[in-house]
Amino acid sequence: MQNHNPTIAEIKDLALQLPEKIPYLKMLVLFGSRATGNTHANSDWDFAVLCDEEQRQAYTKSNTGGLFELPMLIGEVLKINADHIDIVQLNHCSELIAHFVARDGQVLYEDEVKEFEKFKQKVLLSNSDIKKIEHTQRKNIEQFLARWGI
Q1: Active site residue 86
Q2: Measuring CA to CA, which of 110, 116, 128, 149 is 20 to 30 A from 143?
């Protein structure tokens, strides 16, 4: 598939077809540079997905490729080259990534009205929480580098 750059409005229309291909999908959010408008020629597509875990496990039991097919299926439906798609699974990501998805993301699909709003209320962090996380991450990196003598 060629590198197609649909508009967000086009993607929202196409995203209505996603439940047919991904029955366990609860929500799809565009985030990163495409959501904020800070794109360049090589910008990829960052999507965050929220899945019904029980449905997904049942689906992937009968479909062994199911664990790895999200970028392909999303690319096929949204008419975007799957090689340019990155996926974050909101069920399994860090609280900092979830915060940035909630803060900057644009909801493309939700199976329940206000699913994204509920998600935002649950995961948005205060500035002091973000600073604590960044401090802990910096400390962990410094300790790792010190152990390796760097």
Answers
A1: no
A2: 128
Closest CA to 11 of 32, 34, 38, 42: 34
pLDDT digits (tens, 9 = 90+) for 119-135: 999 999 999 999 999 99
Of 118, 75, 77, nearest to 98 (Cα)?
A: 118
> What is the rounded CA–CA span in Å between residue 119 and residue 114?
9
3-state SS class at 50: strand
| 13 in catalytic set | no
The 10s digit of each residue's pLDDT in 23-33 is 999 999 999 99
Q: 39: domain CATH number? A: 3.30.460.10
On whether residue 76 sits in a domain, the answer given is yes
Q: Which of 13, 44, 52, 86 is catalytic?
A: 44
Q: Provide the mean pLDDT of the chain.
A: 92
* Residue 1, in any domain of the structure: no
* Residue 2 within any structural domain of the chain: no
